[in-house]
Amino acid sequence: MRNHTQKALLFIEPVSSSSKLILKAQEKRYDPLIISANFNQQPLPNEVINTSLTIFQINIKDHRAVLDLVEKISQKFHVDGVIPGAEQYTSLTNQVAIYLKKPGLTEEAISQIQRKDALYDCLKTHHIPLLSYERVITPEKLKAAIQHVGLPCVLKSTRNISSATIKIANTLEEALQIFEAIMHQEEEYKISEDIAFQPSVLIQEYMEGTIYSVEGFLNNKLVSIVSVTEKILSPELDLTPIGYIVRSENEKLLIHVESYLKQVLSALKLNHGPFQADIKLSEKGPLLTEIFIGFPKSQISTLIGHATGIDYYDNVLKFFSNQPLYLQKTKRLNAGVAFLHTHNTLEACLENPHVTEIETYDKEEKLNSSIKQKLGHAFFLHKDYEILKQQFVTLLPHSR
User: Fold this and answer.
1) How far apart are CA 77 and CA 138, in angstroms?
2) With contact defined as beta carbons under 8 Å apart, do 67 and 99 qualify?
3) Measuring CA to CA, which residue among 249, 262, 312, 270 is closest to residue 288?
4) Are 191 and 215 found together in one domain?
5) Where would a tag sit more exposed on the chain, N or C end, judged by fewer CB atoms within 10 A?
6) pTM of the prediction?
């Protein structure tokens, strides 16, 4: 029998980091309920399936059927909160939350963050500083857009999806090749999802600067920033992160981005949920590149815990079950995580005295065809940021 103090949380199609959140929920004595298609294309991890959870299997694309299922679930359980498993399920999760009379976002806000062109158009209307950009659908439009944004330039899907689709082009020929690859991917997505939308590519001005991932929580007008996390980028012609660093002292950095970020959140009318925003610190100041509503990806939650002592997983559970957050720092360390793609880097980590934790994968992790396979990841800790970063750079000598 369910304890009267136990909170029931409904997870919509948990994948990636949200799978760990489910295990954390069990550990903290929540009652996790899962709605998932659980088809061969995207099965639930074994560590989730093998635990004593309540799993409801359904075609996740049929929103009406999902809401009918939620009605039946609500007759048996008092659902305290609804959590999206990934950013592509934000809209469905929001529909479920509103159906259960839980806080959520407006459909306008969701539609603006799900497509980068709509996102940037909204910010441009509100006079928020941005990198120059254009949406293109043909090679001819691409050539004209390059005259506007210049070379090198950044090309990305207009859908607000993984940064693995983002590429840098130094020449017109490279830009055309990347454009064709992204358009092909968009056409395949349109067919596989059986949805009506016009495939397109966003071309954007390239500007030097460090990119930071800003993690936090939105609760009405209250913005709680938990971490400003430095991205270490691939040396290749893309912007795929190969690691992250959280600094022990980042008050000046926080002040620098906080005012800009609050303008962004206000313009987009985002007021509920955990968020992750990518901001480039450039010669023009802070500039938004991406923003997601949902759980941080790529070991960032664990990294925040190593650096600050803040349990991000637990705070996400508290947030969705309407409990007070606990964001008091109990540590002030410099912490980094590196994603390992070769056996040489893995062996180097095993011999590195600053590495405190290594996790290797049973199978090389491959999230989709455009992301490099990973052998594992390693966490670094050091009281001195410069020493920590030097160790990181030594391990990954070609990072930017």
Assistant:
1) 51
2) yes
3) 262
4) no
5) N
6) 0.89
Is 290 in the same domain as 347?
yes
Instruction: Report if residue 156 sits inside a domain.
Output: yes
Place of tokens 């990806």: 297
Domain termination residue (choose one: 173, 189, 205)? 205
**What is the pLDDT at residue 399?**
55
pLDDT of 27 higher than 50: yes
- What's the domain count of the chain? 3
Task: Please check whether residue 158 is in contact with residue 202, taking contact to mean a CB–CB distance below 8 angstroms.
Answer: yes
Position 192 scores a pLDDT of 73
Q: Is the same domain home to 304 and 373?
A: yes
Distance (Å, rounded) from C-alpha 117 to C-alpha 112? 8
Residue 16, classed as helix, strand or coil, is coil
Asked if pLDDT for residue 44 goes beyond 60, the answer is: yes
Do 118 and 147 form a contact (C-beta atoms < 8 A)?
Answer: no
Number of H helices, E strands in the chain: 13, 16
Helix (H, G, I), strand (E, B) or coil at 83: strand
384 shares a domain with 239: yes
- Whole-angstrom Cα distance, residue 279 to residue 381? 24
Comparing CA positions, the residue from 17, 59, 11 lying closest to residue 33 is 11
Three-class SS state of 308: helix
Q: Is residue 288 domain-shared with residue 355, that is, in the same domain?
A: yes
397 confidence band (pLDDT: 50, 70, 90): low
From the list 54, 211, 238, the residue with the least C-alpha distance to 155 is: 238
Q: What pairs with residue 367 in β-bridges?
A: none
**pLDDT higher than threshold 50 for residue 49:** yes
Same domain, 162 and 247: no
Are 173 and 273 within one domain? no
Helical H segments across the chain, by residue range: 17-27, 46-49, 63-76, 90-99, 107-114, 116-125, 139-149, 172-193, 251-267, 300-308, 312-320, 343-351, 385-395
Structure tokens at 353: 């005295």
Q: Show the domain range for 168.
A: 132-205
Tell me the two tokens of residue 237: 């012609």
| Token pair recorded at residue 185 | 């991917």
- If pLDDT is split at 50, 70 and 90, which confidence band does 41 have? low
Q: pLDDT tens digit string along 155-202?
A: 999 987 655 568 999 999 999 999 999 999 888 877 777 677 788 999
Which pair of tokens denotes residue 275? 């968020």
